[in-house]
Design brief:
The protein contains eleven helices and ten strands. It is an alpha/beta fold and 247 residues long. The termini are far apart. The chain has a six-stranded mixed β-sheet with strand order 6-7-8-3-9-10, with helices on both faces. Strands 2-1-4-5 form a four-stranded antiparallel β-sheet, covered by helices on one side. The mean pLDDT is 89. The radius of gyration is 18 Å and the shape is globular. The chain has a single domain, classed as 3-Layer(aba) Sandwich (Rossmann fold), CATH 3.40.50.300. The chain binds adenosine-5'-triphosphate (ATP) and magnesium ion. Magnesium ion binds next to helix 1. Magnesium ion (MG) binds next to helix 1.
Length: 247
């Protein structure tokens, strides 16, 4: 048995006939940040949603703390300590900021994260807690989505495209929180199209290309050429703008 917190082996996931994830394996150890990068449609969201229990794989295993969770229902995975911040945030927009956090804390695991702790992390929130989510900016909504996942006191936080639709300065601010979250003992699996941003916070990088693993490694060991090749595929990489990683 490995000492991984999350251990994914030979995972294959189909949407109907389409193979979205093809024999993908990786592990996440405690206190680690692993970033999955990949272009549009590479299978990143499918992978995170499968770990959260929202898609059933065709084959492969997902172990959490040595227990196979592949058949476990989504809410039980949350109870075990796996929380997903979904792509597009999926907040309850007619509810207030605080009500959204309360939803995340419903039957939460015991741990360091309470709504008050989230308010310490995002110090602008207490004054805005009675506002409806639709009154918040995209970056603020992303922060609420992260806060909602944190109050469940996860061991593993799954973050799907934190940067989506946000201005670069806001993306930087959101990403600046990742080390703070890790410092509380949470391991983080990030999915990103924004390679530079995702790789900056990563201990390890895993690249998906059309559902398959195309590259894995430690950021310092990876060149921009390798990443472009793995991200776009051999043909498109020649035309692609150079990513800003490893320069
Ligand atoms: N519910 C679904 N039903 C059918 N096909 C789907 C479904 N969800 C995703 N797909 C398809 O599976 C493939 C992988 O999609 P997925 O959303 O996992 O990719 P992604 O890497 O998250 O892309 P993006 O960067 O655009 O979010 C794509 O071809 C997509 O069209
Ligand atoms: Mg996606």
């Amino acid at each position: 048995m490995s000492d991984a917190l999350l251990d994914v082996r030979g995972l294959t996931v189909h949407h109907g006939q389409l193979c979205a994830i093809d024999d993908v394996s990786f592990s996440l150890v405690e206190g680690e940040v692993l970033t999955m990068i990949g272009a549009n449609g590479a299978g990143k969201s499918t992978l995170l949603r499968t770990i959260a229990g929202l898609h059933q794989p065709t084959s492969g295993s997902i172990e959490f703390n040595g227990v196979d969770i592949v058949k476990m229902r989504p809410h039980r995975r949350v109870n075990l300590g796996i929380s997903l911040v979904p792509e597009g945030r999926r907040l309850f927009s007619s509810m207030t900021l605080e009500e959204n956090l309360q939803v995340g804390g419903y039957r939460a695991r015991k741990g360091a994260f309470t709504i008050d702790r989230v308010y310490e992390l995002f110090d602008w929130m207490p004054q805005r807690r009675k506002q409806h989510v639709w009154q918040l900016s995209g970056g603020e909504q992303q922060a609420v989505a992260i806060g909602r996942a944190l109050v469940a006191n996860p061991k593993v936080l799954l973050l799907d495209e934190l940067s989506l639709g946000l201005a670069p300065i806001i993306v930087e601010r959101i990403y600046a929180l990742v080390p703070e979250v890790v410092a509380t003992g949470v391991s983080v699996l990030i999915v990103e199209q924004d390679v530079a941003q995702g790789v900056t916070v990563a201990d390890r990088v895993h690249c998906l290309l059309e559902g398959r693993t195309s590259l894995t490694g430690v950021p310092a060991d990876l060149t921009s050429e390798q990443i472009d090749h793995a991200y776009f595929g051999a043909d498109l990489a020649k035309m692609a703008p150079r990513s800003e990683v490893g320069e």
